[in-house]
Amino acid sequence: MRILFFGDVMGKPGRVVLKKKLPELRARLGADMVIANGENASGGVGLTSDVLREMLGVGVDVVTTGNHVWKHRDLYGTLDKDSRVVRPANYPDGTPGRGMTIFEHPAGYRVAVLNLQGRTFMDDVECPFRTADALLASLPDDVRIRFVDFHAEATSEKKALGWHLDGRVSAMIGTHTHVQTADAMLLDKGTAYLTDAGMCGVEASCLGMDKEVIMRRFLTRLPQRFILAKGEATVNGVLVDVCPETGGATHVELVRE
Ligand code: FE2
Predict the structure, then answer these.
(1) Which of the residues 68, 151, 176, 178 is marked catalytic?
(2) Domain ranges of the chain
(3) Ligand 1 mean position to 42 CA, how many Å?
(4) What is the CATH number of domain 2-256?
(5) 230 vs 10, 13, 36, 214, 227, CA distance in Å?
């Protein structure tokens, strides 16, 4: 089972590049399933129901999110209804949506997709470590393929959750920083790990936002209205091979086009 994952899709430039490259990448890399983080797909912050539909329409099987998922209220109902989108699981009980979904692949594989959020330099949500433990305990044992998008800021928190989940999930891939890290590896007990998948968006920018605005913000310390960067965009992500019987990863590699 080959899973292709894309990091944070940044606004329209990210959606356009994803739509353009996804069919060719899916075919060339032989991906069985595509997951993408869509928490910034609408205007660079948040996700609307329309944009979710657009992402699912271009070939994304499951959309993960993060801290900006609450930006557009129109998504709340969709989060409850549509099992192809997940939000971080470690929000308080009663929050709209689900933090884990099971994707049924046409070939018969079932893939659990878990979404968690870090709490170092971020909102103080519930413990991602204990939430992950509870989610995994609730999973039927025959769902061996388990993919985790950990939307978090701190590299140490990401590494620690990777080791905590080693051998219990197929892959733990980080998102949120929009910068792809070079540390893709198979952990000791067979979990594919990457600190951050990077983004789908304009590289000549600050994390997908207009670089002039961000520079002005740092130079003046005055609040600025963020605008999306324009220009040529890249897709950043990761490819993971998983043994469907054991759920262990056999290969992990960076994707950057
Ligand atoms: Fe984020």
Answers:
(1) 68
(2) 2-256
(3) 13
(4) 3.60.21.10
(5) 11, 7, 21, 14, 9
